[in-house]
């Protein structure tokens, strides 16, 4: 199974890099997501990501004022990115392990296609196992 087979078509929610942690929390809750794509400020800038865990272990655990704390203080930028859609999922898993992340952004050139999560990799691996077992009867 290849990266192109598992890239998520799921809608991603984008916030501006000037957003506060409070803005990010509201966006996550309203959109029922556990991460947000942080938009670039300009064409030569990088995208970023902030996850629910970034916010839990960061500003919330520290008791900071969520309405004034910048989301960028707890976001990760630049994103961990993959753009070779022909890669086998084992290389996606290896990249996640090497980078210590559970989500990777997938681009086709400048076009953002979506995110791959560790859950997507697990599902793809399970699907591969089922197919293999189905042919070995």
Outline the structure in words.
There is one protein chain. With 137 residues, this protein is of the alpha/beta class. The chain has a single domain, classed as Roll (CBS-domain). It contains 5 helices and 6 strands. Helix 4 links the parallel strand 4 and strand 5. The longest helix is centred in the last third of the chain and has 18 residues. It is elongated. The mean pLDDT is 89.
Structure summary:
By secondary structure, the protein is α/β, with parallel strands linked by helices. Helix content is 39%, strand content 18%. It has helices at 3-6, 21-31, 52-60, 89-99, 118-135, and strands spanning 14-15, 35-38, 48-51, 81-82, 103-108, 111-117.
Low-confidence stretches: none
Number of helices: 5
What's the gyration radius in Å?
A: 17 Å
Q: First CA to last CA: what distance? A: 21 Å
- Main CATH class: Alpha Beta
- Number of beta-strand segments: 6
Structure keywords:
alpha/beta; 5 helices; 39% helix; CBS-domain; three-stranded mixed sheet; 6 strands; 137 residues
Summarize the helices and strands and which ones pair or pack.
Elements: H1 3-6, E1 14-15, H2 21-31, E2 35-38, E3 48-51, H3 52-60, E4 81-82, H4 89-99, E5 103-108, E6 111-117, H5 118-135
Parallel strand pairs: 1-2, 4-5
Antiparallel strand pairs: 2-3, 5-6
Helix pairs in contact: 4-5
């Amino acid at each position: 199974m290849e990266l192109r087979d598992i890239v998520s078509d799921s809608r991603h929610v984008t916030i501006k890099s000037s957003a506060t942690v409070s803005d990010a929390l509201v966006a996550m809750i309203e959109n029922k997501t556990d991460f947000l794509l942080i938009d670039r400020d300009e064409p030569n800038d990088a995208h970023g990501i902030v996850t629910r865990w970034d916010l839990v272990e960061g500003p919330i655990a520290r008791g900071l004022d969520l309405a004034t704390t910048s989301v960028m203080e707890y976001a990760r930028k630049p994103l961990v990115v993959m753009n070779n859609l022909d890669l086998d999922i084992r290389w996606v898993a290896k990249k996640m392990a090497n980078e210590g992340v559970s989500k990777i952004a997938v681009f086709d050139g400048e076009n953002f296609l979506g995110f791959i999560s560790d859950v997507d990799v697990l599902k793809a691996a399970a699907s591969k196992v089922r197919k293999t077992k189905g042919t070995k009867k």
